[in-house]
Write a structure and sequence with these properties.
Rossmann fold, binds adenosine-5'-diphosphate, alpha/beta, Helicase, Ruva Protein, domain 3, Arc Repressor Mutant, subunit A, about 15% strand, five-stranded parallel sheet, 11 strands
Length: about 325
Amino acid sequence: MDDIATLEQQLVDRNVQPSDPSDVENALRPRLMGEFVGQGKVVENLKLFIEAAKARGEAMDHILFSGMPGLGKTTLAHLVAEEMGVPMHACSAPALEKAGDLVGVLTRLEPGSVLFIDEIHRLPRVAEEFLYSAMEDFYLDVVLEPGVQSRSMRLSLPRFTLVGATTREGLLTAPFRARFGVLERLDPYPDHELAEIVRRSAIKLDVEIDHAGAALVAERSRGTPRIANRILRRLRDVAQVRGDGTITRAVAEQGLGMLGIDGNGLTELDRRILKCIADHGAGPLGLKTIAVAVGEEEDTIEDAYEPHLIRQGLLKKTPRGRMITARGLEAI
Ligand code: ADP
């Protein structure tokens, strides 16, 4: 019993954080599946799986969401919990450094609840292996006294749903990936869906935006709701200070210019990435060199910047490094 008490004490669940509604991002998050714009196929699949799980009275199968940052993976995890009528706990994979961190999180889950792990491709290997038995058979073997005379204890866990989010599905090991029953990929949003998201966010932020203003924000948001919402918040300031409070196309143009977002939706950093390659004979140039030159992390460049540049045909990835295209040269 003492062992368990000591273990309990060690299991500091500093990683489980209930969502903070004061945060602006959370405030703009759709609260109901019906408010989630776009990703039709993903939403349709989820609704069906949720309905089936509810009808059977079971926890939902484990889900893996992949896609660029800001496309709605966290939001969908919240919505799955909401639709299932269960609590959700969120943590970020890199924070689960020691096996004990994960044990703490898992042993505190309520039956049926959703455990959301963001950036799951960055989960330390020990934690990943711990999760195997937890995900498959809902138990954990915890080593109490490591060493020659090691003793372990089997802890049974309530049935729970692991929802993982990743910007790099390819980095997940095959056995880990195989333990998710539902794999859904989120794609960048077409402009008309982004415009709809912008209009809905404007209502929540209590700011007027006209049709042309919303269309322009959508065009410049590189298919990403988080970026669209971020631009909208800044434009609200511009409209208040420089206009009559309404975000018109003219206000949006002015605000986008102030934010350094150009006609291709490129930010200052995108342009620096392109310029760095251009300055090196149009490439090929290694990611490491680019990261040092622009002062940003390699992962961030690869996850958050490059996909848009590649989709726009401004940058090419080759086995020898990144190259700027003729369109890319034109863009800068
Ligand atoms: P991710 O987890 O993929 O990085 P989030 O779920 O945190 O992205 O979404 C970022 C922001 O964009 C949130 O504020 C959320 O409200 C908004 N958002 C994302 N997808 C949608 C959507 N389909 N409809 C409405 N808002 C969305």
